[in-house]
């Protein structure tokens, strides 16, 4: 049984290193969007290259995050966490030194591999190290400080881009890693999951990531109408079918199909896909709209986005408590509708948009919608499976959200007619943005209808989330494995 107490010096060191590690990934997921216009200008990148700057990271992270958690269970959670931090920092250094878009995109894909190792590892270390009486408090502090990191991310990214330059968005991870790794090696105890282990589902992970990459390429490059696009789309579909086949027939699949026998679990993941597809497209495009069309500086654009994550940070725990009393159906129906209204309000944001009257109202409504739905979403995922599968269910839900976001970033420019240089032409980008927001709103309405029709109140006494405070806009918070203590 783990016996580290939260108030002890070792407990504080463990909390510090896990917060530092997870903050690297959280910051990176929120600051890069703000830097995109400056990256495009400095590297001479097309819109497709900017899409890949976001999606190369998401492809490897979404495809490998379940495998990353399994590696920690098998070989040691501290070891895999440290490997992830070092890997992430090395890839960040390559991003910061990128000489052209191709080098940046490749480095971002490597970053995603590191993120898949450290993201589940940071929470697993807390749950494996702290005494059961202190575990919930430790997880609460970890998720709370992570939420602060997510809230600060856009502001920090804007400040770095406006000041030292966009390369420091990535280079900042290097000193964080230099602080995190020695603390982890000195103060964090090693742990691994006992019992018999099956074989790793490496083939499943590779097929899943490959399917995402090929289909994303086909969507991003579809406007060219080339043979390569058609072949990529076909190969992506083949990889997706092969992934399903492998998962159905392996003795130890990464994504066991029988978990979807729960209608509630399936329904809430459908809601997740719709919600985070809309969020992914929204936060990719709004950072560009504020700078390219409204004329905001990177710092002003990053600061403008703060209200959404601050509201989540302040009120997500209360929202979760309210949903415990009312059941998840109402918040999962109302939350997406609020977010849809916010995206329609964003149609007011055009050239020379005033922050207080045009931008802030939309972001406040967006924050209210996210507060309403994200905590109940996580709770419903956990309540729909057995306790022993809590970590797996949360990992699947997290990966589904990230995959939905990357597909949206790939598809929206195609659906709205953005050309390769649209982000350099304010009128062209504004016209496409005005077509994109109703599409995102429509997807959120679909999420609301799905929740109303399919989500039901969980059974009494079901599993509850440990991460009650959060601020991430890219995916729901991860929950770890639970065990009887």
From TrEMBL:
PROSITE patterns: MFS. It is a multi-pass membrane protein. GO terms for cellular component: plasma membrane. GO terms for molecular function: transmembrane transporter activity. It comes from the Bacteria. It is found in: Cell membrane. Keywords: Antibiotic resistance, Cell membrane, Membrane, Transmembrane, Transmembrane helix, Transport. Pfam families: MFS_1. InterPro entries: EmrB-like, MFS, MFS_dom, MFS_trans_sf. CDD domains: MFS_MMR_MDR_like. Residues 14-459 form the Major facilitator superfamily (MFS) profile domain. The chain crosses the membrane at residues 12-36, 48-68, 80-99, 138-162, 168-188, 200-220, 226-246, 267-290, 296-317, 329-347, 359-383, 395-416, 436-455. GO terms for biological process: response to antibiotic. NCBIfam families: efflux_EmrB. This is DHA2 family efflux MFS transporter permease subunit. It comes from Streptomyces broussonetiae. The lineage of its organism: Bacteria, Bacillati, Actinomycetota, Actinomycetes, Kitasatosporales.
């Amino acid at each position: 049984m783990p016996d580290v107490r939260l108030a002890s010096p070792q407990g504080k060191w463990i909390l510090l290193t896990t917060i530092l590690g997870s903050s690297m990934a959280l910051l990176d997921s929120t600051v890069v969007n703000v830097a995109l216009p400056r990256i495009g200008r400095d590297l001479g990148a097309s819109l497709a290259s900017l899409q890949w700057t976001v999606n190369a990271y998401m492809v490897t992270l979404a495809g490998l995050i379940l495998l990353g958690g399994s590696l920690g269970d098998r070989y040691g959670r501290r070891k895999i966490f440290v490997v992830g931090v070092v890997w992430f920092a090395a890839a960040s250094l390559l991003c910061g030194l990128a000489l052209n878009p191709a080098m940046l995109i490749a480095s971002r894909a490597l970053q995603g591999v590191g993120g898949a190792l450290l993201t589940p590892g940071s929470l697993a270390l807390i749950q494996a190290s702290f005494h059961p009486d202190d575990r919930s408090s430790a997880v609460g502090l970890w998720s709370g400080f992570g939420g602060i990191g997510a809230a600060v991310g856009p502001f920090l990214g804007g400040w770095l881009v406006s000041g030292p330059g966009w390369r420091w968005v990535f280079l900042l991870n290097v000193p964080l890693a230099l602080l995190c790794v020695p603390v982890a090696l000195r103060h964090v105890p090693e742990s691994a999951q006992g019992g018999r282990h099956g074989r790793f589902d490496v083939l499943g992970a590779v097929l899943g990531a490959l399917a995402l990459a090929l289909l994303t390429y086909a969507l991003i490059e579809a406007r060219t109408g080339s043979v390569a696009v058609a072949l990529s789309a076909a190969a992506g579909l083949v990889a997706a079918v092969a992934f399903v086949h492998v998962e159905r027939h392996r003795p130890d699949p990464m994504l066991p199909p029988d978990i979807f026998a729960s209608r509630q679990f399936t329904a809430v993941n459908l809601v997740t896909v719709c919600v985070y597809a809309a969020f992914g497209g929204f936060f990719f495009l709004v950072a560009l709209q504020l700078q390219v069309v409204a004329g905001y500086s990177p710092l002003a654009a990053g600061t403008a986005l703060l209200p959404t994550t601050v509201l989540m940070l302040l009120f997500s725990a209360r929202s979760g408590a309210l949903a415990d009393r009312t059941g998840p159906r109402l918040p999962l129906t109302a939350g997406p509708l609020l977010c849809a209204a916010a995206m329609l309000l964003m149609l007011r944001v055009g050239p020379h948009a005033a922050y207080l009257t045009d931008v802030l109202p939309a972001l406040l409504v967006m924050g209210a919608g996210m507060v309403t739905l994200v905590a109940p979403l996580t709770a419903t995922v956990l309540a729909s499976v057995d306790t022993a599968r809590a970590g797996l269910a949360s990992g699947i839900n997290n990966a589904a959200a990230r995959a939905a976001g990357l597909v949206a970033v790939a598809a929206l420019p195609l659906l709205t007619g953005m050309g390769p240089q649209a982000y350099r032409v304010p009128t062209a980008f504004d016209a496409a943005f005005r077509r994109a927001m109703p599409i995102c709103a429509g997807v959120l309405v679909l999420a609301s209808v799905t929740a109303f029709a399919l989500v039901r109140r969980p059974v009494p006494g079901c599993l509850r989330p440990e991460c009650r405070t959060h601020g991430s806009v890219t995916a729901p918070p991860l929950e770890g494995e639970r065990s009887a203590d």
